[in-house]
């Protein structure tokens, strides 16, 4: 069965698995938790504990676990897997690099460490962006890129595109390119480019680091967009060019 873990700090939700987990357990316990988060516009810091009393999943439960996970990836700020079961730990270790949120694996005796780690995660997107009134998105990059960052930027871009047809431009403002938090962040970055490459007029990069040398390569990924590089401190010039 699945049961909610009680007395967790605010903002952290947890489930504990005991015995054999069935499809009905997911439908009665896990799915309502996800639906409530969607309705409230909340993101989840999730603790999943599979202790000594855990006996495994039925085939229906395994499918439900995969289905709910794929459908709800954008809801998670982070996930802590707490288990001493070898195959659970190994499966989580292999999958974590492909997921859009940070995932860490803890033993049962490290459960308090797992809760503490979830509490230290940054909320929402790790980079900031703003939409200017004339259809230019300015993205300020200071930390490794997360999948949540591209979800947030895509939502902003898609809302404008739905109303106006195309986005006038994107300005990337970064001292240097910090890389991605994990494989999930990189994959979401590539998906953002794929879905928006023909809907952006201009891409300006304001940077002084190695990203300036990479700017010409960025142009290869945008079919219609013009691309131009600016010094980091000339971000206002970059914005003016992108909106023109």
> What is the fold named in CATH at topology level of the largest domain?
Transcription Regulator spoIIAA
Average pLDDT metric: 84
CATH architecture of the largest domain: 2-Layer Sandwich
Counting helices, strands and paired strands, the structural category is alpha/beta
- Shape descriptor reads elongated
Order of helices and strands: EEHEHEHEHEEHEHEHEH
Textual characterization of the structure:
With 244 residues, the protein is of the alpha/beta class. The protein has two domains: 2-120, Transcription Regulator spoIIAA (2-Layer Sandwich), CATH 3.30.750; 128-243, 2-Layer Sandwich (Transcription Regulator spoIIAA). The protein has helices at residues 23-40, 59-71, 86-95, 111-120, 147-164, 183-196, 211-218, 235-243, and strands at residues 2-4, 12-21, 44-57, 76-83, 103-106, 128-131, 136-141, 167-174, 200-206, 226-230. The chain is elongated, with a radius of gyration of 21 Å. The relative contact order is 0.10. The mean pLDDT is 84.
């Amino acid at each position: 069965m699945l049961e909610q873990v009680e007395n967790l700090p605010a903002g952290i939700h947890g489930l504990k698995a005991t015995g054999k987990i069935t499809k009905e357990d997911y439908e009665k316990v896990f799915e309502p938790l996800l639906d409530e988060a969607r309705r409230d516009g909340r993101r989840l810091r999730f603790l999943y504990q599979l202790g000594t009393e855990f006996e495994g999943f039925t085939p229906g439960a395994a499918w439900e676990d995969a289905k709910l996970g794929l459908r709800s990836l954008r809801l998670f700020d982070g996930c802590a897997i707490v288990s001493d079961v070898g195959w659970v730990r190994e499966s989580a270790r292999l999958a974590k690099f492909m997921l859009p949120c940070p995932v860490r694996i803890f033993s049962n005796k490290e459960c308090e460490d797992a809760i503490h780690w979830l509490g230290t995660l940054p909320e929402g997107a790790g980079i900031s962006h703003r939409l200017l009134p004339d259809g230019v998105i300015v993205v300020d990059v200071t930390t490794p890129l997360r999948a949540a960052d591209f979800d947030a930027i895509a939502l902003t871009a898609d809302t404008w595109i739905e109303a106006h047809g195309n986005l006038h431009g994107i300005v990337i403002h970064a001292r240097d390119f910090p890389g991605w938090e994990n494989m999930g962040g990189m994959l979401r970055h590539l998906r953002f480019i794929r879905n928006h490459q023909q809907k952006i007029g201009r891409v300006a990069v304001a940077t002084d680091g190695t990203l300036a040398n990479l700017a010409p390569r960025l142009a290869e990924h945008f079919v219609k967009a013009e691309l131009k590089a600016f010094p980091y401190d000339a971000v206002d010039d970059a914005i003016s060019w992108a909106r023109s």
